[in-house]
Design a protein that fits this description.
Shape: elongated
Distance between the termini: 37 Å
Helix content: 40-55%
Number of strands: 23
Radius of gyration: 34 Å
Length: about 800
Amino acid sequence: MRYAWRTLRRAPGFTVIAVGTLALGIGATAAIFTVVRGVLLSPLPYRDADRLVAIVTRWTTGRQTPRITGGDFVDIRDGARALEAVSYYYGGEVGVQMRDHADFVSVYWTTSDLFRVFSVVPLRGRVFDDGEVDTAAVVSEDFGVRQFGSADAALAQHIRIENRSYEIVGIAPRGFHFPQRADVWVPAGATPANLNRTAFNYRVVARVKPDAPLEQAQADLTVIAARLARDEASTNAEKTFGATPLRDLMVGGVRQTLQLLFGAVLLVLLVAAANTANLLLARAVTRSREIAVRVSLGATRWMLVRQLLAEGLVLSALGGAGGVLLAILGTDALLALAPSNLPRLDAVHVDWTVLLFTALVSLATAVVFGVVPALQSAVVDPQEALKSGGRTVGGAGLHRLRSALVIAEISLAFVLAVTAGLLVRSLVALNGVDVGYRTNRMLVMYAHAPARTLDEAVATTRFFDALLAELRGLPGAAGAAAVMGLPGGEYGSNGSYAVEGKHVFGPGRKLPHADFTLASPRYFATMGVALRRGRDFDARDRYDGERVAIISEALARETFPGEDPIGRRIVCGLDEITLNPMTIVGIVGDVHQNSPADAAGPILYMPLAQHPFRANEAQVVVRSEVAAESLIEPARRVVRARNPEVALKFTTVERILNDTVATPRFRTMLFAAFGALAVLLAVAGVYGVMSYVAAQRISEFGVRIALGARPSDVMRLMLGRAARLAAAGLLIGVLAAIAATRLAESLLFGVTPLDAATFALAIAAVLLATLAGAAAPAWRASQVDAVQAIRAE
């Protein structure tokens, strides 16, 4: 090993290139592994985490939702004997009033059994019991420190939520934030308030008993579902329930993306290994005389292989060390680029497991790139090597091996290039979707005004009316409106609806489905949503006025084909008020409510003022004639002057839209980077092979030129060889890509896995890159001095 180190020190150029190549491959692999391990593989940070499950609702049609109805929860809690503790919860970011300010906080209503499910022992105080509804709260340590200076200081303090006062009776231990980013937990009662079996308002978590396997819990749920399908056929005939490991439910949305990224980075590692093997084979040419002398002095083949493997291990160790540094930097970069909805980011860090993985990858890479070159280099004819000066060491076998490695590099690079191309085209298509609303210079202000009673809720609708009028008068503001259900936003609702004369609203009925959005007057004009027919909401549409609604074109096409919807009456299950029929007064253009990747589906719009219990948690949109962010402080001052207890946070419509495509953008950026890196490594491999060819055939080129060949003839000869290597690599790559891109089909938008244009562009890019890698050696070969070349021979 010491001799190997000294040998590599005497060839600094080779060593730096080889170590750098390995460090790039190993570092990228280790960085992606760090994220994959933290998100997908590491256990949840709870005691006996393998016994934690989420209860989901499934239908015989194959559809699934992570939510449960209140009535179904009661039956599951009382009937699933294999479950030790079961808890429901609901909530999210809401306004919380502290002593001197208000803020948005992640608040969840739940049962005391939530703390049993997760075996939570309070850091201070106690957990609440189910009889303390609307009076007690448990907060996270982070919340206590942030709002009161310390956990001890937070205990016994009071906070207000929806004009209810809660005493902080306990502080959750550091790091406990379930659901993700939860900071406050308040009791919702042992039994849900809504026992309707068609309203999926709750999420449910449970702990399986120590002596019961997960299969037993699933069997209990199946039995309960079968009984309900019989006894509650109108709502449960096609429903069943599933016990899903909690970790699987948390990471299910990103599993395929991370698995594909890990597969892609392994391809990059293989390209790096092949490139290093080519470097070692190229170096064998310069060391053939050394090897010949060793053989002449009695060295056995095993001794030569052992020495060459030692050099490979030193290279891999250095590459692994560089890879660890790049992994640390790369992991930080990945976390910075990762979408905010990527779960379990707090579990992503470089630790001893990552270091062990890196060491194993380095060792495996040393074996992959070191063994075959070592065996090949150890086969040498001493007499031939000493006579030729090493230019023919290994003969045709060595040359074929180097060409095969380059072909493999080109093939792998093409697979990554075409996959990256498909994802890039998919992202371009996503960004090019007409979402149906204005995105530029649109400020969004989340505003939560506390309200508990009907009178207080109705008063908040008047508060927002006055607030919107004042916001419209701000310098630079061109319009303002309020909405509950902004496209891509945090709030929203959906459900079934029925049209008089077409459907009967009630349990067990087959009814159409739509998104529900509450909007103030001028919302459509502010957001740039086209009013196709009828009228907008206006001052007539108050809480005590006639119930009205506006529908999207998609809903009109779905429910009123060939009919005029204006004047028809419709009902939905948003709240009790909407069970009263609403008259359709307008039709507006379609919008992509959740993401550009989703179709513009049916939307039922209702006046914000006619649904006051949902109107106090609104998104205020302000259309600006200047930079949207410049209106944040003026808007904040307006709200604070009117009601300092209103919790506020700001963003923009453009940022919200960007967040909806954050995950596709993240994977596209990484695939593009991996593809570019693989192509560059393949170019380096081609350069190495063609340089070797030029060195081996120097005398031949001298003879050709002496006999009348032009430099362009030699260039064509060399580039033709490179083109043949590229053609072989591309042929194999195309076949591999046809299979590989099928794995990414579900991640594509607006493009097929076998998109001909993408394949053609990838072929052209890899071919041009290959020829570029061969250009410099080909040029040098064409400039050979015939006399000197023949004399040297």
